[in-house]
Design a protein that fits this description.
single chain; alpha+beta; 6-stranded mixed β-sheet; 13 helices; 19% helix; globular
Length: 508
């Protein structure tokens, strides 16, 4: 049977909502990265490359080329891209259009990464804050339990010009959380920035028994325009250190480093050495630090902004649960949650190494330079089989109705809102489908192994092309199965009747 157009439109509306250190400088770089070995050569462990970006884009549109930002010419391609932007333009008209369509920045990254077989698995936008998570297609069925959240810390904690947006997910069973923040500006508000961070950490919760709070995740990344400045040192000294590349002379007066010495929550986060020049504040379209004269009240000239490392990437590996014998010595019982964490850490270890941490100086469209961090995650997979196997039955074309075969390989919380999408090879996100079928509504037959879902010929593209099928779980908010690529043939009827004038565009 065929789902009615009205039902499909109503449900499609719901889909469109967005298938949406102690001081780092007091130890050597090798010591800072001792959290994992250079190679994942232990049996049963795999290595994954994570490329992270943070950039305050100062309301400008994206550059035409983001090759350097994403290091697309690197011999090693990342498994995951996580991109956090601040001050994405959010004027009323633009913001409304961005809620209906993808914003210019998201489109740029999707158009760049899609042809390279990366899929946007999640995104969240709060005014100028934008967080995007991309994955290689091969990992997509193993990224589950995706949820996003946001916290406003602007005017009276009501306005979203400052705050944090996050995406949490399970990656081969390991809980990861990415938190992109834009904190209070100006030199004198270091304490307020820490208060805002603590507020974000305390208030963001998720519908997940295993990790209901940010701190419950195995691995947390905290990044963004954190707005910490360099205290005490004068403008001349700071710029002299930058010109001479003696950045270490500035580290002790970096506010984030200073605050870490007295704030417990900050001490749990690690950061690589700041061996790159401060990323704020630059004259637009140049590599020169702030040279403008600022007009203040009564016509006086304001001070130029002093350079600072406002844009940062930090991470927190969840502290290991104490072993049972140590807890017994302290007369503390081993509660169920701690016991589960201890068992998980022993059976499925997770380690992290930062491979690079730097800025990208070639981009000058903003008064901030983008910062990238590249990491290696070494972990033992908790599962390696997708939840669903699916395939196209027989030959597909717009000349005949078609069937999809799927088989649940493991138990999962199915829903009447689950659907199977037909995608062209190189699709960019779960919402980038050609058409889709409701799994329950369009089911036509099943046996002990396979379930058949009907696809009407009017839903199949006339010009054909290379396609894949994806099973989307509404409860898990993710794709849990992907077919092998298959050929959709051109419609012979359309060719004979002259509807296909040419074969240049397979998708019109």
């Amino acid at each position: 049977m065929v789902t009615s157009g009205a039902v499909k439109r109503d449900r499609s509306d719901s889909l469109s909502s967005d298938l949406t250190t102690q001081s780092m400088h007091d130890r050597t770089q090798d010591e800072g990265f001792l959290t994992c070995d250079k190679r994942a050569d232990e049996p049963g462990k795999d290595s994954f490359r994570l490329h992270m970006v943070t950039w305050n884009v100062a309301t400008v549109d994206p550059p035409n080329d983001v090759t350097s930002l994403l290091q697309l010419n690197s011999p090693e391609s990342p498994d995951l891209y996580v991109i956090g932007l601040q001050e994405v333009y959010s004027g009323p008209l633009r913001f409304v259009s961005d809620t209906v369509y993808n914003d210019a920045w998201s489109l740029q990254f999707m158009c760049t990464l899609g042809p390279l077989d990366y899929v946007k698995v999640s995104s969240i936008r709060m005014q100028g804050l934008l967080l995007l998570v991309f994955s290689k297609l091969e990992h997509v069925p193993f990224i589950r339990d995706i949820q996003a959240s946001y916290t406003r810390t602007g005017i009276y904690r009501y306005w979203g010009n400052k705050g944090g947006v996050s995406v949490r997910l399970s990656f081969y069973g390991h809980t990861l959380c990415f938190l992109n923040c834009h904190l209070a500006a100006h030199m004198k508000y270091a304490t307020e920035r820490v208060d805002e961070f603590e507020y974000i950490m305390d208030t963001q919760t998720f519908d997940c028994k295993k990790a209901p709070r940010i701190v419950d995740h195995r691995l947390v990344f905290w990044f963004g325009d954190l707005n910490f400045r360099i205290e005490d040192h004068g403008m001349h000294f700071v710029r002299s250190c930058i010109n001479n590349q003696t950045y270490s002379l500035l580290w002790s007066k970096d506010q984030l480093t200073m605050m870490k010495k007295k704030e417990q929550i900050l001490q749990e986060f690690e950061e690589g050495p700041l061996d790159f020049q401060p990323t704020y504040k630059f004259d637009l379209n140049s590599d020169n630090y702030d040279s403008r004269l600022y007009r203040t009240w009564f016509g006086f000239n304001g001070k130029k902004r002093k350079p600072a490392w406002t844009d940062r990437i930090l991470w927190r590996l969840r502290p290991k649960a104490p072993p049972p014998d140590e807890q017994e010595k302290n007369s503390v019982g081993l509660d169920a949650k701690t016991a589960m964490q201890l068992e998980e850490e022993e059976e499925y270890p997770l380690k992290i190494r930062q491979d690079s941490y730097t800025n990208i100086m070639e981009y000058s469209i903003s008064d901030h330079k983008p910062v990238i961090g590249v990491f290696t995650l070494e972990l033992k997979k908790m599962y390696s089989t997708p939840l669903v196997r699916l395939q196209a039955e027989g030959d597909w074309s717009a000349d005949m109705d078609a069937m999809v075969l799927y088989s649940p390989l493991q138990p999962f919380p199915s829903s009447t809102w689950d659907w199977i999408g037909l995608y062209k090879v190189g699709f960019t996100s779960a919402s980038d489908y050609i058409t889709y079928m409701w799994v329950k509504d369009d089911e036509v037959a099943f046996n002990e192994e396979d379930i058949k879902v009907y696809v009407g010929k009017e839903e199949i593209p006339v010009r054909g092309g290379e396609c894949v099928l994806c099973y989307y779980s509404s409860n898990l908010q993710c794709i849990i199965g992907i077919s092998e690529p298959f050929k959709v043939h051109e419609s012979k009827v359309a060719i004979e009747e002259g509807f296909l004038a040419g074969k240049e565009d397979l998708w019109n």
